[in-house]
């Protein structure tokens, strides 16, 4: 067996935060089958291997079709708890100390599941992780952009009793043909509620959608944003504003945004001064959680320790942790890097 690469050892030791994770995208095939059995639902796959074999996507939409169908096994509050708890256990094993997760309530309310069922299941797991391990989290309610703005207003109304446990709003699902401008009034309402907004933009859609997300939705982070690189003026602006871009490398490869990880622009994004960091998006479908994304990028792009540390630091900077907590984690990173450097010098 070959020895662990020294930078991979550093990746394992660093405290990490994840800012772009769809909880429904953490539904592993094993849990999907277990919940289907528990709820008397039959899946159109003979077994786990044939389900996994279907995870061969051509683009975002081919993934979303499977992802929304898979979420159909989530019925009860306990199901949402079990889903979230399974992710949190993996996150803890991955060295994640803080996570900001998306949930897509419309995926569930459209099937007759109450908003409260979804919300309480997820929040109870997040509270348990904080009580048991001190893992902090934020919960981001995301609107489905393939649905109408009116539909978004309707789910926002259902969310109102739970707003104290919701930390921000997002925009996801099929990007092409559903520009941020479609949700300008909805996001204006979200901002009136004094909560931060983020949006998927520039994943499959053009750089112009990133501009719209900034200008029309006034987001404080761009999810993905990789196609921003097609517009040099936009890149300069994103860098000057220190606008975070929550990049998801393995997701981009599985959804064929880039042909190969070696062609991924992550390194170029850092070189351009962008506040980019690595996230897992829908790890059960894309073949890797956060640590695996970092390891795969390190290998494919030959990232050095400085770049890995920059990505991890960017993630804490862009998080919604309080400034004092961010400073504590940045100090912790400095200590770990210093100890790692001493070890390397021996
Ligand atoms: N990568 C992605 N892009 C857009 N919507 C999503 N919903 C879950 N994953 C997504
Ligand atoms: Zn996403």
From TrEMBL:
The domain of life for this entry's organism is Bacteria
InterPro entries registered for this protein in UniProt: A_deaminase_dom, ADE, Ado/ade_deaminase, Metal_Hydrolase
Cofactor comment: Binds 1 zinc ion per subunit.
| Protein name per the record | Adenine deaminase
Named cofactor requirement(s): Zn(2+)
* SUPFAM superfamilies linked to this entry: Metallo-dependent hydrolases
The signal peptide here is none
Residues of the site described as Important for catalytic activity? 224
Q: Which HAMAP family match?
A: Adenine_deaminase
Function description: Catalyzes the hydrolytic deamination of adenine to hypoxanthine. Plays an important role in the purine salvage pathway and in nitrogen catabolism.
Q: At which positions is substrate bound?
A: 282
Assigned protein family? Belongs to the metallo-dependent hydrolases superfamily. Adenosine and AMP deaminases family. Adenine deaminase type 2 subfamily.
Task: Show the PANTHER family listed in the entry.
Answer: ADENINE DEAMINASE
Keywords, comma-separated and alphabetical: Hydrolase, Metal-binding, Nucleotide metabolism, Zinc
């Amino acid at each position: 067996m070959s020895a662990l690469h020294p930078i991979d050892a550093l990746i394992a030791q660093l405290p990490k935060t994840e800012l772009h994770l769809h909880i429904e995208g953490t539904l592993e095939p094993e849990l999907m089958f277990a919940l289907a059995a528990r709820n008397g639902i039959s899946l159109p796959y003979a077994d786990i291997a044939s389900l996994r074999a279907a995870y061969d996507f051509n683009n975002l939409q081919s993934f979303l079709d499977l992802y929304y169908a898979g979420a159909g096994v989530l019925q009860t509050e306990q199901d949402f708890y079990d889903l979230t708890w399974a992710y949190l256990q993996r996150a803890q094993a991955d060295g994640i100390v803080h996570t900001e997760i998306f949930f897509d309530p419309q995926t569930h309310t459209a099937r007759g599941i109450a908003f409260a069922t979804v919300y309480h299941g997820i929040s109870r797991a997040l509270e348990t992780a904080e009580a048991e391990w001190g893992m902090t989290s934020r919960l981001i309610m995301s609107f489905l952009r393939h649905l109408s703005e009116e539909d978004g207003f309707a789910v926002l109304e259902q969310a109102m009793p739970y707003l104290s446990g919701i930390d921000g709003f997002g925009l996801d699902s099929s990007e092409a043909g559903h520009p941020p401008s479609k949700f300008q009034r909805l996001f204006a309402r979200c901002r009136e509620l004094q909560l931060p907004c983020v949006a998927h933009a520039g994943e499959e859609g053009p750089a112009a959608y990133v501009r719209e997300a900034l200008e029309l939705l006034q987001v404080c982070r761009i999810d993905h944003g990789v196609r921003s690189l097609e517009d040099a003026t936009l890149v300069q602006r994103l860098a000057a504003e220190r606008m975070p871009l929550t990049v998801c490398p393995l997701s981009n490869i599985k959804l064929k945004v880039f042909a190969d990880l070696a062609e991924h622009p992550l390194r170029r994004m850092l070189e351009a001064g962008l506040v980019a960091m690595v996230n897992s998006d829908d790890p059960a479908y894309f073949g890797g959680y956060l640590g695996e994304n970092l390891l795969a990028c390190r290998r494919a792009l030959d990232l050095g320790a400085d770049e890995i540390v920059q990505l991890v630091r960017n993630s804490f900077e862009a998080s919604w942790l309080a400034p004092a907590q961010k400073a504590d984690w940045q100090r912790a990173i400095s200590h770990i890097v210093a100890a790692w450097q001493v070890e390397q010098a021996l």
